[in-house]
Design goal:
alpha/beta; Rossmann fold; 12 helices
């Protein structure tokens, strides 16, 4: 990949740090389409001042979750397209982009299976204490810890969009009862999946497992009040967006044995280094929901195609 733009060729900034980790096909696709490709030089999520500096001469950006706010976009005098690798657009000031004539695209379908499967894996790991026994074994201890079955439990899905629906499909062989809370209930979806819609408070009170599948919010959806509504011994899952859960309140609920455990893949501040790491019944992963090779390559390929299609509209 080039680090210096060629005169007369459009320049694409790869601000997402992991682009190409699943294979170099998407990068080669960009290069074959005639773009100069500028990689992320830091190998991590860019800070505001870093993306602001790198984006100055870019015609397009293939973006991750770095801040693309109005102040950053105003530095990008040539920018025409933001192509997001992923679904969430909370990090993009969409009003500023519209005002500046910048097209914003995302890849909402590609990560559905990857996130839903990881959610199920995290849930089963908490229920059967897989992570805890793994740590015991690596430390030289042979101790079988009593877990529980998923079969026959009530699972509450908060947000029945693409990933929530896919999770419901994956859960069916376990013969669980599935209830859901959604801002826009769809009776047809519920009938197809065998899901019953309820209000959030009722879902929290009735579920053995609560799994969040929502876009980011300015305030935590699950705080001290909501955790107090949850069934004693229940489990909370967040493989959706950081900030949806009050992490300090969750720590207290688990430390006091009001909840049995949790699985989190996303956090209010990343990388996460908070006290949930100290709790043996909490499974933590580093925002890896889309990190299945098949899903990642599809996301990146779609992001490239979105970028190419959008730039062609300007010609």
């Amino acid at each position: 990949m080039s680090s210096t733009p060629s005169k007369g060729r459009p320049t694409v900034l790869l601000s997402v740090s992991s682009f190409g980790a699943a294979g170099d096909g998407p990068v080669r696709l960009l290069e074959s389409a005639g773009f100069d490709v500028i990689p992320n030089p830091h190998g991590r999520k860019l800070r505001e001042e870093e993306i602001a500096e790198l984006i100055v001469d870019a015609d397009a950006v293939i973006a991750g979750t770095e801040p693309l706010n109005a102040a950053v976009l105003e530095r990008a005098g040539r920018l025409r397209v933001i192509s997001r690798v992923g679904v969430g657009l909370e990090n993009v000031d969409l009003n500023a982009a519209l005002r500046m004539g910048i097209v914003v695209r995302n890849t909402p379908e590609a990560l559905t299976d990857a996130v839903a499967e990881l959610t199920l894996g995290g849930l089963l790991s908490v229920l059967r204490q897989i992570g805890r026994m793994d740590r015991d074994m690596h430390a030289g201890a042979w101790e079988r810890r009593m877990g529980g079955l998923l079969r026959g439990r009530t699972v509450g899905i908060v947000g029945l969009g693409r990933i929530g629906r896919r999770l419901a499909e994956l859960l069916h062989p376990f013969e669980v009862r599935i209830i859901a809370s959604d801002r826009a209930p769809d009776a047809g979806v519920a009938a197809h999946l065998g899901v019953t819609y309820v209000e959030l408070d009722e879902l929290l009170a009735e579920s053995d497992v609560v799994s969040l599948h929502l876009p980011g919010m300015s305030d935590a959806l699950i705080g001290e009040r909501e955790l107090a509504l949850m069934k004693p011994g229940s489990i909370l899952i967040n493989a959706s967006r950081g900030g949806l859960v009050d992490e300090a309140a969750l720590h207290a609920a688990i430390a006091e044995d009001r909840l049995a455990g949790a699985y989190l893949d996303t956090f209010a501040t990343e990388p996460y280094d908070g006290p949930l790491r100290e709790l043996p019944t909490v499974i933590l992963t580093p925002h890896a929901g889309s990190y299945a090779a098949e899903a990642r390559e599809r996301m990146e390929t779609e992001a490239v195609q979105n970028l190419v299609d959008a730039l062609e509209e300007f010609q």
